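From the thread on structure requests for the teaching lab: each student submitted one protein with a one-line request. Submission from student K.M.:

"Model Phosphotransferase from Melipona bicolor, tokens only."
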Amino acid sequence: MDAILVADFIIKIQFRIRDICKELILTDDQLRMVMQKLDDEMNKGLSKATHDDAVVKCFPTYVQDLPDGSEKGNFLALDLGGTNFRVLLITLEGQSFDMKSKIYAIPQSLMLGTGTQLFDHIAQCLALFVKDLNLQDKVLPLGFTFSFPLDQQGLTRGYLVRWTKGFNCSGVIDEDVVALLEQAIERRSDVKIEVCAILNDTTGTLMSCAWKNRNCRIGLIVGTGTNACYVEKTKNVECAIPGNFAPHKSHMLINIEWGAFGERGVLDFILTEFDRAIDENSINPSKQLFEKMISGMYMGELTRLVLEKVVNAGLLFGGKCPSDLKKRGKFFTKYVSEIENDAKGKYTNCREVLAELGLRNVSDQDCENVRYVCSVVSRRAAHLASAGIATLLNKMGEDNVTVGIDGSVYRFHPYFHDLMTEKINQLQNHKFDLMLSEDGSGRGAALVAAVAAGHR
Ligand code: BGC
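Reply posted by the TA:
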């Protein structure tokens, strides 16, 4: 083929790939519609009359104070909710802070086993950790970061509403997870702890960020799952249980649980065939739809589904689909970040990823098209998360709000931060900052425990 014909051929292929991807590209009008609907759903969650039936629950956290920097003491923290489980010892002293931590794997058999097995494992890891540090005879205050939807009834009581992110342990739904933890610790009777607070990772992120930055009013996670929390006026938190919070305090943190947004057809106008396939093959079909469009648990698989379609249409790899690209779960979310991390016109990471999938000698053009698919999927995630944050900024109506953010997708994707900054600016008019939050689940848990237990 001569050069003109080749260029023409490449453009035709790109055009057809763009056509397959077009429903994954959201216009600002569609994103504004998402904002409107999220706002409606949040209002249903906040209002007492509609809370029970609401999809986006907006759970009260009973956290009413932000840290002021005077928190001090030694705290234990447990962090369950992502791919790993961690136990931490945190020392707070003015603006200095020290942390020792240990990561323990949660094998799939535990994620899908019984609640008793899960909590026994947690208690065992905790016991090993405190014995290692020779702390088993001290009664240390503990903050438990439990990153699943909890119907909280106080700072130390929270009933699991549903499992998300691939967990499905029996016998935990509708139970108070603090009680389950305490029972597991009692069964061992070799360590002493005092659970001072149970919290969500978004709350931990907000608190941890607020400890450094007084303007932090929103906590966001874009990791294995996605969710946000924000500072709401206490008078708007109609569902909080009287007697379990201080009505004279002006604010309370709200755990939105926006991952559930989209259930009952609310986001059908933007769902694609790829989203429907992800949902159908998940362990929680028709649940957590917003989360399935944004978070790391699903981003790789979404990308794989689009790539598979592009290959099957004869537009990539000469129409030959490597067997691993046909298998569910084989295209990891980290590949998206790696591929997009290649410098423009270079495809080193892309070729490494494709080699892992069994493909060698791939042309630059194919690599460019693979990168395009990755960027469409990650941009949509960033734009949807931006629509969520823009909704909150409008709701709060304040300028100069800092958003503390954590999670593997936000942390490792090369453009997520920039994409979000740009889109949030386009969708609303308040000034804001996006700040990477350092270890919210650990330090945040200690701060909630400190504030709750009055260690100031
Ligand atoms: C959970 C939230 C959590 C988020 C981020 C979601 O699946 O429902 O509670 O905050 O993941 O970890």
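TA comment: The mean pLDDT is 94. The CA atoms of residues 21 and 376 lie 7 Å apart.
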